[in-house]
Specification:
With 544 residues, the chain is of the alpha/beta class. The chain is built from 19 helices and eleven strands. A nine-stranded mixed beta sheet has the order 3-2-1-4-5-7-6-8-11. Helix 12 links the parallel strand 1 and strand 2.
């Protein structure tokens, strides 16, 4: 029922926009494809509802979609090469495993992995409903896919990708038969998704399905297992803030990359080729790390174009030897605990040492800020979502803010509205860092009113994002919205970087004419005196 309602509302929206001239035919086609895809995902959810918890369900669907994606991607790649060579009837899916083995080494070098024809998604689906050993077959195939990359350049990108797709989990059913039944429904549900030809569909279907699944469950499990889902609109804002005046960058980096949505928004807005040397990220949670790598593949980022590490960014940072990053976008966990001064060596860490103090053990926010600054290129920009408290709290955080301002690293602080993120009503803010600023001032923007209400959450519209980015780029004062503060002003405020300290909110209270009010009061007092005199006369008559 809910699925039908969503579809009807979407259709109404499409028709309305079309009648208003906002859509052309291809846009309607995209929306139809997208809604069809979303309905298919809902259908799978209904099939497995009650058996698989929502957040785990996401892992199973994404794993199956990834399996289908790499099967079709490999098949399409091989078929295209054979067709170009003159064999127009060639189909890798129909080839024997024995003959296919000859191409293993070359395909691993070119695609990063290898699959036998019998292991392809389409061939496993064909007999899934009658396969009594389906769970074992899938487990073997997934192991083979990961194993094919061992010893190659792509080993790290494929290792453990299917760890969260447990074909023998009791969550799928208490018996092997029941688990196989649900696995078959899952495979066939993904098979029935109209994703079109992998090289010829008008929406990024696999990637769109990923974002839809994440949004579907983020409200209830947005932070489950360390996962934090950054809404696409916030991702757009961060990327645009970080790329003002640039059409291309060397590399994009997220030190707390989660499922990779921020990195992929860079690819979408700039174009994959405009990020010349690829996408880098670090994620501490193994499940989310696997999701991030799957997400990269689903968005057609080649194994040689991304490098995602599974380590603690603050205590075991990767990419020490990498060229600094021209774009850093991040939404690190808010006020998470870390070892801090519990590790005496960290004060000498070149990332933290310049500030002369470590972020508090109970609040690692500033540690992420200092890490990002250290990894930032001289001509780069970092746009980081922050917990508001780090902008005004005292102690070590104040000392770090002073260090950042003294060295002219803070380019802007932008206050966002509350309830933009799933699972929290916190009104977050964005700190923009640069090493090569053209002035020694900080732009403060109060964007707390820049949003629209959507159900229980707020949402940034394209118009909201345009206004924020435009004022940020122009660095101009706008009454009740933005203020460009110099060093002296910030110093006078003890290095408090709260936007409310610098941008005066608009007074929306009703203006009162004091002279008119006084006249009205005098009139009331005079009337009251007349009334008292009349009452006194009446009382005197009664008593007399």
């Amino acid at each position: 029922m809910k699925c039908q309602l969503v579809y009807m509302l979407s259709c109404i929206l499409v028709i309305t926009k079309f009648l208003c001239g906002g859509f052309i035919v291809t846009d309607i086609k995209k929306e139809q494809e997208r809604e069809e895809l979303h309905r298919a995902i809902w259908a799978i959810a209904d099939e497995l509802r009650g058996a698989v918890d929502g957040w785990d369900f996401k892992n199973y669907v994404l794993g199956t979609m990834f399996y289908r994606f790499i099967s079709e991607d490999l098949t399409s790649y091989i078929n295209q090469n054979e067709i170009e060579a003159g064999d127009t009837d060639f189909d890798y899916a129909k080839m024997s495993d024995e003959d296919a083995e000859e191409a293993r080494e070359g395909l691993i070098e070119e695609k990063g992995f290898f699959m036998l024809p019998s292991e392809l998604f389409c061939n496993v689906c064909a007999n899934a409903a009658n396969d009594e050993n389906l769970n074992e077959r899938l487990e073997r195939i997934f192991n083979n896919i990961e194993g094919s990359a061992k010893g190659s350049e792509s080993e790290a990108d494929f290792s453990g990708l299917f760890d969260d797709f447990d074909v023998n989990s009791n969550k799928l059913g208490a018996t092997v038969a029941k688990r196989n039944e649900r696995l078959a429904k899952l495979l066939n549900g993904v098979k029935d998704m109209n994703l079109g030809d992998i090289n010829d569909h008008s929406i990024d279907a696999f990637g769109d399905a990923y974002e839809y699944l994440m949004g579907m469950y983020a409200s209830g499990a947005g932070k489950s297992g360390g996962e934090f889902f950054t809404p696409p609109e916030v991702s757009v804002l961060l990327t645009r803030l970080g790329t003002v005046g640039k059409n291309e960058i060397n590399k994009a980096y997220d030190p707390a990359c989660g499922s990779g949505s921020l990195l992929l928004k860079c690819a979408e807005l700039l174009g994959r080729d405009a990020v010349r040397n690829g996408f880098y990220g670090q994620e501490i949670n193994i499940t989310t790390y696997n999701l991030c790598r799957i997400n990269m593949f689903l968005h057609k980022i080649g194994f040689d174009k991304f490098d995602i590490a599974c380590e603690d960014t603050l205590t075991n940072p990767q990419y020490w030897d990498e060229e600094p990053f021209e774009l850093i976008v991040s939404n690190p966990p808010y006020s998470v605990k870390w070892v801090g001064d519990g590790d005496a060596t960290l004060i000498n860490d070149p990332r933290f040492a310049p500030a002369g103090v470590l972020a508090p053990k109970s609040k690692a926010d500033m540690a992420f800020i200092m890490h990002s600054l250290s990894w930032l290129a001289a001509n780069g920009t970092a746009a980081i979502v922050c917990f508001p408290g780090i902008m005004y709290r005292g102690g070590a955080e104040q000392k770090i803010r002073k260090y950042l301002i003294d060295n002219n690293y803070v380019d802007a602080v932008i206050q966002l509205s509350g309830s933009l993120f799933f699972g929290t009503s916190i009104a977050t803010c964005i700190m923009v860092l640069k090493k090569g600023k053209s002035d020694n001032k900080v732009m403060f923007i109060d964007a707390s009113k820049e949003c629209i209400k959507v159900t229980n959450n707020n949402k940034l519209t394209p118009e909201n994002i345009d206004r924020i980015v435009d004022v940020f780029a122009k660095r101009e004062d706008v009454a009740h919205f933005s203020h460009l503060a110099d060093y002296a002003e910030i110093s006078e405020n003890d290095f408090n970087l709260s936007v409310s300290t610098y941008v005066e909110p608009e007074d929306t209270r009703e203006k009162i004419d004091i002279k008119k009010l006084n006249a009205e009061i005098a009139e009331i007092v005079a009337s009251e005196q007349v009334l008292r005199s009349e009452i006194d006369k009446i009382i005197a008559e009664i008593e007399g």
